[in-house]
Amino acid sequence: MTDSRKQKLFNLSAETLAEALLNLAVHSDEADDLIEQLIATPKENVQRFTKKLSSLKHSRRFIDWRGAASFSRELEMLLQDLKSGVDDPLTGVELVAAFYEADSTIFEMCDDSSGNIGDVFRYDAKELFVDYASRCTEKEKIADIILKVNQKDNYGIRDTLIDCAGECLPEGAIRTMIATLQKWADKEKDEYGKRHHLRSIESLARQIKDAQLFEKTRIASWGKLNSAAIIDIARVYLESGDVETAHLWLKKIPEGETFQAYERDKLLEDIYHKQGDSEKLTELLFQKFKSYHSTDTLQTLLDVIGHDKRDEVVADEVEQILKADRLRESDAEFLIAVGRIDEAEDYLLKRADQLDGNHYGSLLSLAEAMESENRHLAASLMYRSLLVSILDRGYTKAYPHGIRYLKKLDKLAAGISDWKEFNPHEAFKKQIIEGHGRKRSFWSKYEVKK
């Protein structure tokens, strides 16, 4: 579709396109700015960039959250002026750095709760900086510019340039930066300022895969290490190719620790793969599968132990799921996913008293799955929970959903001959009328729509 429209535009005359752009510019400042950028010389675009940046620094306007997206596009166009106007890499680096140094002005003049403005710094400006810096032969100057910009980072955005140093600087230049940062950290009396410099060293150490330096710096910065710090150190050792040391660090985490358990287990999985330790890898993957049943954790396990064991593994785990007293919606989803519909229905019916309509996302998908398999009683019990949750909370915005659920229940009831120990539909309906009959805004819409 896009290629077709593009070809049709190619077929139009230059005069037609020019007229269209000029007409659009009358109603759109962005379009007008784009035209000025297109017709400007490179020198004029650089002048446009510096003039706009200066104008921002002297501006007294404030952009609320509703205008943040539009303001982010304005900043993107500002960077585009620079890209269109500057070919010299060092000049480009210096001007992008100036953009980063305007962060206080930019963030203080807007509400960036949406994150749109921050993203311009993290992505658009960073990509432009890396492009210029990669082409620049004066690497020492690039390193000095990054350090100068990053001396203070009050808005947590300038460290973007530290984090991308490895994309545009050789290891030698980065080690010189690390030495400078260490001197700054040693002289820094403010604890926050010291940690800022040490955090920069950590980032650079990771980029050049110096795990020992990362470890030393993390200990200097944090002192006593928690599980998160240990996992970070192990990850850098693993990235650096030192599998055994990575494993030794992970062993420092106390047994039974649940904080960041997912990240720890993911690293262990990589370590066991690299060590060729199929026994421990299998044990870990079985543990992950049992703690959270899903087709993904099953697939990962079978990739190691063999897909010929699928039926055996599934049968054993289905048996364990059905023995458990507590309802886990993820287990019901797993039973459905592996084609055990009968077991899933039995699982849900026996634990119907634990259904929680506040778990909207998972419960609705389960109800729809049961309905599609003509398991009307199980589906009805879940739609009941969803409906009761809405009515109990008096959540008027969700009444249209509640009405839909009640209409579903009306329809499903006709296909249920055996209600087992559960109230038939009419008895359930009588109960909710008795408890919520005063919610006229709900019932009036239900009667009308019925």
Write the layout of secondary structure elements.
Layout: H1 2-10, H2 14-27, H3 29-39, H4 42-57, H5 68-85, H6 89-101, H7 103-108, H8 116-135, H9 139-150, H10 159-163, H11 171-187, H12 191-207, H13 211-222, H14 227-239, H15 243-250, H16 261-275, H17 278-291, H18 295-305, H19 310-323, H20 329-337, H21 341-350, H22 360-372, H23 376-393, H24 399-413, H25 425-436, H26 440-449
Helix pairs in contact: 2-3, 3-5, 4-5, 5-8, 6-8, 6-9, 9-11, 11-12, 12-13, 13-14, 14-15, 14-16, 15-16, 16-17, 17-18, 20-21, 20-22, 22-23, 23-24, 24-26
Keywords:
450 residues; 74% helix; mainly alpha; 0% strand
- Overall structural class, as computed from helix and strand content, comes to mainly alpha
Query: What's the helical proportion of residues?
Result: over 70%
Biggest sheet details: none
Order of helices and strands: HHHHHHHHHHHHHHHHHHHHHHHHHH
Number of helices: 26
List unreliable stretches of 5+ residues: none
Shape: extended
Number of strands: 0
Overall pLDDT: 91
Evaluate the radius of gyration.
31 Å
Beta-strand content estimate: under 5%
State the end-to-end distance.
Answer: 42 Å
InterPro entries: DUF6880 (IPR049245)
Pfam family, one: DUF6880
Please characterize this protein's 3D structure.
This protein is mostly helical and 450 residues long. It has a domain at 15-169. Helix content is 74%, strand content 0%. The chain is built from 26 helices and no strands. The protein has helices at residues 2-10, 14-27, 29-39, 42-57, 68-85, 89-101, 103-108, 116-135, 139-150, 159-163, 171-187, 191-207, 211-222, 227-239, 243-250, 261-275, 278-291, 295-305, 310-323, 329-337, 341-350, 360-372, 376-393, 399-413, 425-436, 440-449.
